[in-house]
Amino acid sequence: MTFQNNFENRLFNRDVNIISNQNFPTDYHLHWHKYAEILYLPASASIVVQPKITVNQVEYLMTPGDIVYIWSGELHQIEDNDDKQLLGLQFSSTLLNELPDFAPYTNHFRYFHHLSMDENEILVQKMTSHIEQILSLPYSDLPFYGVETVITLYRLFMDFALAIKSSFISEDDLPHAESNKTFQKISLACRYIQENCEQDLALSDVSEYLGFSTYYFSRVFKQITACSFVDYLTTQRVKLAQSLLANSALSVTEIAYQSGFNSIATFNRAFRKCRGCSPSEYRKYYSK
């Protein structure tokens, strides 16, 4: 097994980093990092061995045309890229987190890792067109190709979000005239929770912030985000803890309290449920 420990250029000089097939490793050990990745096996690829991507202990065998999403903080491993056909995009998660419009969808995004052309042909074709455009931009003579790269990435996730909305988010219980306004308010709620997750937040605090009753807010929040308020808050605290675990100067106990957990036991239990290992074990896999 061949490991290439320096293939990922983490000194980003652009918002989106491209890994060519020549620089993509044959195998890469179990690790995690603070940025997100899109792995892509072109439909035109000629392979003898299927590359295997493991994300959160689930293995995905890739066939030509497939896409694998690896979200910030997820444990993952690359194996059997012997034919050197895989391509990769790396980008900071803040590109999505900074835009409130994406907030209701980020939880849905994380349900998706492997998009197969056989099972999601229309969506994968849309994703592929954006990925191919990003991959071609460095070879263009556009004066602002870095900006165009980010714009294209946003278009990719806009199409992704619209596909999710049409397939998984029902608006049947929302008054039609209010549906867009409600989505906007839930976007604000998600952003508010993300930015204040270390605080002692309650459902009533956020519903009051939006001007909703607690009952209505609880119902529509889960309907739109596919997550209860408590689970969403816990997930944001775990994500904050993930970022802090990259700082070796902080103890696990300090990180637990700085992330909004009221006890180390609660933190350990929530973290293991989200990441499948303890915070201390997780820290060992951090790839700077």
Structural write-up:
The chain is an alpha+beta fold. The chain is built from eleven helices and nine strands. The strands form two sheets. A five-stranded antiparallel beta sheet has the order 1-8-3-6-9. It has a four-stranded antiparallel beta sheet with strand order 2-7-4-5, with no helix packed on it. The longest helix has 24 residues.
Can you tell me the residue ranges where pLDDT is under 50 for at least 5 consecutive residues?
A: 1-13
Series of H and E elements: EEEEEEEEHHEHHHHHHHHH
CATH homologous superfamily assignment of the largest domain: Regulatory protein AraC
Query: What is the beta-strand fraction?
Result: 5-15%
Number of helices: 11
The CA-CA distance between the termini, in Å, is: 22 Å
* Main sheet specs: 5 strands, antiparallel
Q: In CATH's first tier, which class of the largest domain applies? A: Mainly Beta
| Residues in helix, % | 40-55%
Give a summary of the structure in a few sentences.
This protein is α+β, with helices and mostly antiparallel strands and 288 residues long. The chain has helices at residues 94-97, 103-109, 121-136, 145-168, 176-196, 203-210, 214-225, 229-245, 252-258, 264-275, 279-284; strands at residues 16-19, 28-31, 35-40, 52-55, 58-61, 67-70, 76-79, 87-92, 114-115.
Features of this protein?
single chain; 288 residues; alpha+beta; Jelly Rolls; Arc Repressor Mutant, subunit A; 2 domains; 5-stranded antiparallel beta sheet; 4-stranded antiparallel beta sheet; globular
